[in-house]
């Protein structure tokens, strides 16, 4: 984006009322966020993201993006289930959950790109507490995913349900990265933020759970598969001990939360927490430490923890801040979920054919397929057999195939999603 256009998009970002989600103004904001998200990715890859960082800080838009993230999450859990029960809600209109999920994914992706910088983290101010709570909910979802193999996303039919689950999974992984960047700044965070991460949510123990069960890694038909760059890959035997970026994010967050003097002073090393943390010792192999040498300090810390009784946390006489965005939105809209759903059926989610075509044209301008493919780290693979693919569905241009035979084989499963997207 030219600097002037980037500045205009940043300045246009604003909070959205819950009932306006899905409306024309909200869809325009989604386009702004998506353009800024793609701009951020391209700028970061070229080492030129300082302009966007400066704009977001100057105009105070990080709290706005966090508020938008929380609004979307509340809408998914409070309004969408009511919406699905309304008889006026047409079956073809189940597309809103995908637009909302994509909006959430775009915001968390933009925050992941930006939170690498200390000034962005500081510009979040008190809203950092709401972001920490959001990341905690997503990490809890990941831990549940590793236990159950899936997460609950209320979307029919089966093929669309699978896509929604994949998006929710990817959003949770982005939240893990954002949380790690927040832990990089423990010295400059408000005291309440540190207390919330360590004692209210007990994030060290939750991260231990992720190390143990590793939801982005699984065995299937005797082969190890890992989730990286948006897809599951079969890992060759010689690479199975390699640390992925996601593994690295968990270990770095643990290093930040456990080895910082301020964190050690505030964390409760009681019997349960101590036993959970000591589970990490079995994972700290020489091969792992060779890939992330800082883990040698973690190994020493755990060895010391095993034979000592840490002092109880020092109690500070401070007033603890609490997150306000989540509570404010819930309080403002409590008891109005059905009214909001009915309003949205009438004003947002019953588009005419002409309105759908107009929106499709706007999105086609926002999402340049050439740009999206240039951003993709890997070449596309066949949806059926997984080999490298050169053809895709000409109707929705969303699924890739190596041959027409694979496309025909997949058509019955792909048809509902294709109809929606086309």
Short key terms for the protein model shown above:
single chain, mainly alpha, 3 domains, 3-stranded antiparallel sheet, two-stranded antiparallel sheet, 20 helices, 5 strands, 4% strand
Write a structural description.
With 422 residues, the protein is mainly alpha-helical. The protein folds into 3 domains: 239 residues, no CATH class; 130 residues; 31 residues, no CATH class. The chain is built from 20 helices and 5 strands. The strands form 2 sheets. The chain has a 3-stranded antiparallel β-sheet, with no helix packed on it. Strands 4-5 form a two-stranded antiparallel sheet. Helix 4 packs antiparallel against helix 5, helix 4 crosses helix 17 and helix 10 packs antiparallel against helix 11. It starts with a helix and ends with a helix. It is found in: Apical cell membrane; Cytoplasm, Cytoskeleton, Microtubule organizing center, Centrosome, Centriolar satellite; Dynein axonemal particle. One of its GO terms (molecular function) is zinc ion binding. This is Zinc finger MYND domain-containing protein 10.
């Amino acid at each position: 984006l030219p600097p002037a256009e980037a500045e205009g998009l940043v300045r246009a970002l604003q909070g959205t009322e819950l009932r306006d989600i899905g409306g024309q103004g909200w869809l325009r904001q989604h386009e702004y966020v998506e353009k800024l998200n793609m701009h951020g990715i391209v700028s970061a890859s070229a080492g030129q993201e300082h302009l966007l960082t400066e704009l977001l800080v100057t105009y105070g838009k990080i709290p706005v993006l966090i508020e938008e993230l929380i609004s979307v999450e509340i809408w998914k859990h409070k309004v969408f289930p009511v919406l699905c029960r309304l008889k006026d809600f047409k079956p073809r209109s189940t597309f809103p959950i995908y637009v909302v999920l994509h909006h959430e994914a775009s915001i968390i992706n933009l925050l992941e790109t930006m939170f690498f910088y200390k000034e962005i983290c500081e510009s979040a101010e008190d809203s950092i507490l709401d972001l920490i709570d959001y990341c905690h909910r997503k990490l809890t979802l990941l831990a549940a995913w590793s236990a159950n193999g899936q997460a609950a996303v209320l979307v029919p039919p089966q093929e669309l349900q699978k896509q929604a689950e994949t998006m929710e999974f990817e959003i949770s992984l982005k939240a893990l990265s954002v949380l790690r960047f927040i832990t990089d700044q423990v010295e400059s965070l408000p005291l309440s933020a540190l207390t919330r991460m360590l004692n209210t949510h007990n994030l060290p123990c939750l991260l231990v759970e992720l190390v143990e069960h590793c939801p982005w890694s699984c065995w299937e038909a005797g082969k190890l598969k890992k989730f990286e760059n948006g897809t599951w890959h079969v890992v060759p035997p010689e690479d199975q001990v390699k640390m992925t970026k996601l593994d690295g994010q968990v270990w770095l967050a643990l290093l930040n939360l456990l080895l910082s003097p301020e964190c050690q002073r505030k964390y409760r090393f009681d019997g349960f927490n101590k036993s959970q943390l000591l589970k990490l010792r079995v994972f700290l192999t020489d091969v792992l430490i060779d890939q992330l040498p800082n883990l040698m300090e973690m190994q020493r810390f755990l060895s010391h923890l095993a034979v000592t009784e840490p002092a109880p946390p020092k109690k500070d006489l401070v007033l603890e801040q609490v997150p306000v965005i989540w509570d404010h939105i819930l309080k403002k809209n409590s008891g109005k979920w059905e009214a909001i759903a009915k309003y949205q059926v009438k004003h947002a989610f019953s588009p005419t054919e002409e309105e759908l075509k107009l929106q499709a044209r706007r999105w086609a301008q926002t999402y340049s397929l050439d740009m999206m493919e240039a951003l993709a780290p890997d070449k596309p693979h066949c949806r059926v057999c997984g080999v490298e693919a050169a053809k895709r569905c000409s109707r929705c241009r969303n699924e890739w195939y190596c041959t027409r035979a694979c496309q025909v084989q997949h058509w019955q499963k792909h048809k509902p999603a294709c109809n929606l997207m086309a």
